[in-house]
User: Fold these one by one.
Assistant:
Number 1:
Amino acid sequence: MASIFQTKQIKYFEAQGYFVLKLIKTNKNGIPDLLCLKAGEPPLFIECKEATDTLKPLQKYRIEELKELGFDAICLQDVK
């Protein structure tokens, strides 16, 4: 189930014209939560974290791995 913060991010990126996929279960653990696609833009992977949550080592590794492959990958954290 998507967190409130994650749901807000989905709505934000969809309002910007992105097609947003919530990645629930993949063959690679630690993959970011969202994949945002938009014509003419590189794919964007987003890990969404609540204000009190932290990026796990595997999640950090996957974000760096995606960047090394040439993809945009970020972690967005809610601020409260």
Number 2:
Amino acid sequence: MKHNESRNPKKNNFMRIPTYPGGKEAYLKFIRENIVYPESAILNKAEGFVHVQYTVDNIGQIEDVEILKGIGHGCDEEAIRVIRLMKYEAARNRGVKMKVQMKTRIHFKLPDSDINSSQAGIQLNYSSVNSKKNNSPEQKPQAVYNYTINLG
């Protein structure tokens, strides 16, 4: 006799794991708003994924944060700092206290230098020429105005 487990797979989950309040979107938003790109990483043009493992206890507190794979230049420490700021919802498991090990990766990406450099380099040159024809030897030089426009 076969067991039909495809009817309701969630019913088989006896223990509930802690969840981040607001779900995945709120989780990603929290990381985006709280992450600070380290100055050393910017200077060394370091970017990539930092893989973090941490434990969430039964009341939603973060414990035992460690880097599984890092990129250095302060990014690993920043990932640990942000993960420690998080607070999960408590998991109610009929009085059973449990800890859940979570893994995540945080993407450190430098701003797209091609777009920024091309936009920052836009310059408009404006020249003003005196339209009066004056043959005086004290003629004023042309005025030249340079404007730099930064987009974004």
Number 3:
Amino acid sequence: MRKIALGSAASLAFVAATIAALPSFAQSNYPRQSTPVERSRTQDLNRNATDGSVVRSEQEDYEAVKSRYDEAQARYARELEEYNAKIGAYQNQREDYQEDLTTNAERNDAYADQRTEYSNEVGPYAQAPAPREGFDGLWDLDRVPNANSELFDAPVEDVDGRMTGHFRRLEVRGNGERMAVIMLNSRRTISIRADEVRYDPDRSVLVADWTSRDLDRLPPR
């Protein structure tokens, strides 16, 4: 039994020594440094990682600058288009204004020519026709107190009894001549001597010594 026990103890000691030697054996057989291939791969990975970050940063900066440039170009194009539109509108307004000036000048010239022809045809002052019978029963305007207020807008008949306009007022010219101002049915305002208009108190109308046709031929006052 003693031999068996001693033999067993020796066996256990051998096994324990063998187990203790295994890690060092394994460590001695496993390479402690990377192989050249592994080091090369590691360097490539590190270099690619570094270069990639740099490339991405430069690409982002370029895209940001290009975006700002594109926005500035678009803004400039819009502003240029708006400016050209304003210039075009101004030019159109200026052309319309020049056309209006030309048209007005032509109208003024035509009016001056017509007025000259009319003045030459009518003369400095046309003579009123002879009064019709029965005018003696009418009043001179001097007999009407406050004629400008009492007779304002009163109907005015011509010598033939036709309605020709409305009385406006009496006025005195610089030479002392008294004039009756009448607005004709044509909306033209003329003036004739006050003694050529009489008032009919029975009908509340004024009667002129003129025909409507002759009154229409008088120049505006």
